[in-house]
Design a protein that fits this description.
The protein is mainly beta. It has one helix and eight strands. Strands 1, 2, 3, 4, 5, 6, 7 and 8 form an eight-stranded mixed β-sheet that branches.
Length: about 120
Amino acid sequence: MSRSYQELVEVRTGAAGEHGIRLEGAVAPDPDGGCPQVPTVFLWRGRVHLVRAVLSRWTQRVPWWRGEDGREDAGASADPAGGSTGATELERVVWRVEAGAGKASGTGVYDLVQGGRWWLERVAD
């Protein structure tokens, strides 16, 4: 089952290898041989979620005449909290990660969106 959200989250990034995060085929290693910077942990609704794997990553284009929330907005792009980032951003990166809030709660698949700010877009249990 999948649920849609548009909630701001706090995300920390780091080298996948240093944090023991499994990379699936969508995220390639850096050309210089280093580990790519990926989401490693995020805070959502007061709970810390540790990322165990990055399943996929893709870029979404935002139509220039719309804000990120889909409303007509030719000026600044808006974030899901209803504010404005103050700058027009035409692309955002979506990270599909496997993460869990603890051993007792199990894991889920989360779509984290990196635009002017980070937000949680979708959760699949």
